[in-house]
Amino acid sequence: MGSHILKISPFASSTPLIFNATPFLRFQAKRVVSICGHPKTQFRFSSSSSGFVPSSKRGFRGGVVAMAAPGSVHKSEEDWRAILSPEQFRILRQKGTEYPGTGEYDKFSAEGVYQCAGCGTPLYKSTTKFNSGCGWPAFFEGFPGAINRTPDPDGRRVEITCAACGGHLGHVFKGEGFPTPTDERHCVNSVSLKFTPANS
Ligand SMILES: [Zn+2]
């Protein structure tokens, strides 16, 4: 298992277009190329997970996992503006993207549950988080039914949203060659998430 510490070259680029996935990645899956253009990136599993234990066997204390029904959270734009920070509103409600390498949970590996920052619905367990080296939190799997997938209008990427409130999370990529149980990467904005420790 890779024990190298991730080395990310500085993000010198000033163009946000770096966020856009490009189809060529699909043809270089074996090279573990990240979306963000670090072809030699080494990745390692988050320290909280001893390999990839099936998430169903890693319960969390505290009963955090209370799922809101899909589509159950409805608020007007005005209401969302009132309860979200401007940055949360920009990303969750206007499908924005945080700058890579800056997010609170990018290099975060504590054990617990990541909930939707908009409505509190549990989305990911920390045991499904892995270090993709792309500059955003990456998960190989979400809670069943918690996340909706919608192809972008241009067909290049698949957007992921909170199934309960529709909040924008990021995008999901498949077949990149990461040695995870699903070979999927949920590339999620930290701003879209709220972490709750397992022992809280
Ligand atoms: Zn939500």
TrEMBL record:
Residues 77-198 form the MsrB domain. Its cofactor is Zn(2+). Keywords: Electron transport, Metal-binding, Oxidoreductase, Redox-active center, Transport, Zinc. The keyword Electron transport applies. Its EC number is 1.8.4.12. GO terms for cellular component: cytoplasm. One of its GO terms (biological process) is protein repair. Pfam families: SelR. GO terms for molecular function: metal ion binding; peptide-methionine (R)-S-oxide reductase activity. InterPro entries: Met_Sox_Rdtase_MsrB, Met_Sox_Rdtase_MsrB_dom, Mss4-like_sf. The keyword Chaperone does not apply. Transmembrane segments: none annotated. It comes from the Eukaryota. It catalyses: L-methionyl-[protein] + [thioredoxin]-disulfide + H2O = L-methionyl-(R)-S-oxide-[protein] + [thioredoxin]-dithiol. Binds 1 zinc ion per subunit. Belongs to the MsrB Met sulfoxide reductase family. Catalyzes the reduction of methionine sulfoxide (MetSO) to methionine in proteins. Plays a protective role against oxidative stress by restoring activity to proteins that have been inactivated by methionine oxidation. MSRB family specifically reduces the MetSO R-enantiomer. This is Peptide-methionine (R)-S-oxide reductase. It comes from Solanum tuberosum (Potato).
